[in-house]
Amino acid sequence: MKRGLTVLLMVLLASAVFSVIPASQAQETLKDQIEGLNSEVKNKRNRVNELDGLINTYQKKIREQETQQVSLQNEILILDNRVREKELRALRTKTEIETINLEVDALDTLLKRQEERIYKQKDLTALLIRRIHQADEISLVDVFLTRPSLSSFFDSLEKIKRLERNLGDSVGDLKTARTYLEETKNLRNTRREDLLNQETQLKTDQQKILEEQSVKISLVSQTERNQQSFERMLYELRQEMQGMADDVARLEEQLKNKLDNVDQALARGDVLLNWPVSPARGITAVFHDTDYPFRHLFEHPGTDIRASVGTPVRAAAGGYVAWNKKGSMYGNYLMIIHPGGIATVYAHLSKFAVGADTYVERGQIIGYSGGMPGQDGAGLSTGPHLHFEVRQGGIPVNPENFLPSGGLAINN
Questions:
Q1: Looking at the predicted structure, is the pLDDT value of residue 85 above 70?
Q2: Which of 18, 140, 283, 387 is most deeply packed, by most CB within 10 A?
Q3: b/e per residue, 87-117, with b = 16+ CB within 10 A?
Q4: Backbone dihedral region of 225: left (phi > 0), alpha (psi from -120 to 50 degrees) or beta?
């Protein structure tokens, strides 16, 4: 009979606690807010697609220009279009960041509403349980005193069956709400991680814009907008590349015994080199970099390591300084011959610290980095950095295959 009393009180609270609650003004406002955010997200996504189209157009235009006859005017036009393409990339990344922010706002709004709903259901369930406990204390006499007829009591029994079903559904809804809440939280956190990645990408895009602009400044500075100077610069570069290969083969044979004594690690065949400057500030261009601005003219033959002007540059291994030179492309640069058929090249130096025809030890300061466009000794540069080459048998190879990962053997 106590169960019957419990039914009476549960029926009184059932519609208020577990039935579907009509949408309130606050819920309508929330719905409008979420719809507004979703509409903004859609507009941002459309803008991203538009920017993708423009970026593809510029990439196609650049590829077409790179197949045309080599000329200074065309190279400047290519660089201008590369800058514009990277500006569009930066704008796309910025729009992506704005989109993610809007998505996070929408998710936060949903989270707040879902948490409020769960807390409300918990409070109402707790209230119902308290009332049930109170009802369990009512006696059998009170049951018959409170009901006018036996039929009404049986009606109450039927209501309890419906109420039990509704109660089961409500518990299921609460579990579903909790699951949805956790999924929404995870999605929100994922989008926030995406946001951090996009912000990092934006900084990279902006840095590349500056580097592309610096390339143009360097090219104009080296050629003074003169086609003949441009052709002479390209000819000089080819001569430099061939000259280095010839010098490596000739000097290695002449100096073999002395080189073995200078760096015994290399002489034993341990070809691991030291980083000439710390890579902590980043690598701006890799060996045969697909994004190298002059790749259609020649492959990038080394690794560019970002370094402030005046950073000490150290010998990657012991060896013989073949020469110090100044060229239009490399700027101030020197080459060291090492044991084991290895040679290293250090370019865009602001200052030399060792002379030609001298021996240096591993880690010894041999010069200071430069590369600031327009400055003496910078050559054709994208900005302050060290251009570092490794040559094996006179042929450029990937320097990072000879360097410790994470900059472990740096002696700066």
A1: yes
A2: 387
A3: bbbbbbbbbbbbbbbbbbbbbeebbebbeeb
A4: left
> What phi and psi values does residue 67 have, to the nearest 5 degrees?
-90, -10
User: Residue 369: phi, psi to the nearest 5?
Assistant: -70, 155
Per-residue model confidence as pLDDT tens digits over 13-23: 333 333 334 44
Segment 207-223, tens digit of pLDDT: 888 888 888 888 888 78
Residues of the chain with CATH 2.70.70.10: 227-407
CATH number of the domain located at residue range(s) 227-407 in this protein = 2.70.70.10
| Closest of 15, 6, 13 to residue 146, by C-alpha | 6
Angle at 136 between CA 153 and CA 154, to 5 degrees: 10
Give residue 311's region: left, alpha or beta (phi > 0; psi -120 to 50). beta
Question: Are the beta carbons of 217 and 379 closer than 8 angstroms?
Answer: no
The pTM of the whole model exceeds 0.85: no
